[in-house]
Amino acid sequence: xxxxxxxxxxxxxxxxxxxxxxxxxxxxxxxxxxxxxxxxxxxxxxxxxxxxxxxxxxxxxxxxxxxxxxxxxxxxxxxxxxxxxxxxxxxxxxxxxxxxxxxxxxxxxxxxxxxxxxxxxxxxxxxxxxxxxxxxxxxxxxxxxxxxxxxxxxxxxxxxxxxxxxxxxxxxxxxxxxxxxxxx
Length: 184
Fold this sequence. Notes:
single chain; alpha+beta; Aminopeptidase; 6 helices; 33% helix; globular; GNAT_dom
């Protein structure tokens, strides 16, 4: 069972007790604005929670979708890292509106980078997000990721075309950033 402490939050495996809080987070209209209608459906939270719990029991394990929990025990959202191909992993983070701007997404994302580069020994970690999701792009840049590419109008939902931005960081880039921020 994975459990990672990061500043004032905890990343841990999901459990069935999280369902009501997770449904509440995913049911928020602002939370759903960059998700397709299918991904915003009321039953989607239960389906996802079931998948996350199932993935935690896989061997070998390649997907780690973790609950982001506050110091007081509230479910804040989820974050995950998935090995997509040898040496390459993707990350993602979703928090409820109440925790936007608190730094929790940054702490969770930094913890995922460390987990991916150290524990999973990947060479490159990337994130994909809807280009209009400026907060997600800003988050990725604050943890050292850079824009690699954009896929123009590659998604269609909510009656419109959406462009996807891909950001990434390599293990060497991450190590350089860590070395610059280590106390001397």
